[in-house]
């Protein structure tokens, strides 16, 4: 009987769930990578599409043409059709004069058809055309060089500038088109002591993501800072979610960000354990209205997720 109850509990925990208060929420389709594959999971919890991918991805995109831009190896960005045909690939190489390791953690298909790729180790952003040729390069300023931690999320802004999360430096920097830093925000420990670890017990300033909002503020997913922060142009915190502020959720390594047209924010909560959702949607008054918890399809290392079928979303 005990074994039967344990198996029943495990099966329930494995299925995507919404809280009772969120039962009327229609849910979302999710594109994400973990547990050896990239998969699209429907709002009903069923896998709609998947490919093998043993690399722990840090970015993923469903493109307007229906193709998928994915992180398939430490240095490789690959574009797949829905039929799983490879139609474009970029493999980051060591730049001239550099002999260390290179890693890619962020990429973005741009409006002109080129692809932005952030190259840690090389400490640069490149824009690559459809033939795989680098057509633009922006050197990054990194205080603590580390090929695994130079960058996390990087996005090109509507202004043409670049918003870069420097994980190792614990800073978000905005670069202009010439590579000059024009804005910077450095994370602090929020009154807590620094501690090692990837789960809720770990705490530091290893920032993961940032989005420039329409009002000019910047929304930041703090990585192992265990917080979400919105800061104004002067670096003042104007809104935040602390580690244990939300009912029934403890923040660990905070990753994915989506800002919805209604102002709600979808947050990725990586390494938080199976007692927490891997993604959740929260209102500006900090009410959780949707939770995604699927430890059958994905696991405790779900870092990169693209929530699908939302128009005019910032991510």
UniProtKB/TrEMBL annotation:
Domain Pyrrolo-quinoline quinone repeat residue range list: 35-229
Endpoints of the signal sequence: 1-20
Coiled coil location: none
SUPFAM superfamilies, sorted: Calcium-dependent phosphotriesterase
InterPro entries the record matches: Arylsulfate_ST, PQQ_rpt_dom, WD40/YVTN_repeat-like_dom_sf
Pfam families per record: PQQ_2 (PF13360)
Record has Signal as a keyword: yes
Keywords carried by this UniProt record: Signal
UniProt protein name: Pyrrolo-quinoline quinone repeat domain-containing protein
Organism from which the protein derives: Gemmata obscuriglobus
């Amino acid at each position: 009987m005990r074994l039967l109850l344990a198996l029943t509990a495990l099966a329930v925990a494995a299925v995507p769930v919404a809280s009772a208060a969120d039962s009327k929420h229609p849910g979302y389709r999710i594109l994400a990578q973990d547990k050896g594959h990239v998969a699209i999971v429907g709002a009903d919890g069923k896998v709609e599409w998947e490919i093998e991918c043993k690399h722990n991805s840090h970015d993923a995109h469903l493109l307007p043409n229906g193709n998928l831009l994915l992180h398939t190896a430490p240095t490789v960005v690959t574009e797949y059709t829905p039929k799983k045909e490879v139609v474009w690939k970029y493999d980051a190489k060591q730049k001239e004069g550099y002999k260390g390791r290179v890693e890619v953690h962020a990429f973005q298909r741009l409006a002109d058809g080129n692809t932005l790729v952030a190259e840690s180790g090389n400490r640069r952003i490149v824009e690559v055309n459809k033939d795989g040729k680098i057509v633009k390069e922006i050197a990054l300023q990194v205080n603590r060089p580390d090929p695994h931690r130079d960058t996390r999320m990087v996005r090109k802004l509507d202004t043409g500038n670049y918003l870069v999360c420097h994980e190792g430096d614990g800073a978000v920097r905005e670069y202009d088109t010439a590579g000059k830093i024009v804005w910077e925000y450095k994370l602090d420990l929020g009154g807590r002591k620094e501690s090692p670890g990837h789960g809720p017990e770990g705490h530091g300033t290893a920032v993961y993501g940032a989005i420039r909002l329409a009002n000019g503020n910047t929304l930041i997913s703090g990585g192992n800072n265990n917080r979400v922060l919105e800061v104004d142009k002067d670096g003042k915190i104007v809104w935040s979610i602390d580690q244990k502020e939300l009912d029934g959720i403890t923040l660990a390594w905070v990753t994915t960000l989506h800002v919805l047209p209604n102002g709600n924010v979808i947050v990725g909560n990586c390494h938080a354990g199976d007692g927490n959702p891997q993604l959740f949607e929260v209102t500006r008054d900090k009410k959780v209205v949707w939770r995604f918890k699927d430890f059958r399809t994905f696991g405790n290392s779900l870092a990169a997720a693209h929530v699908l079928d939302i128009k005019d979303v910032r991510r």
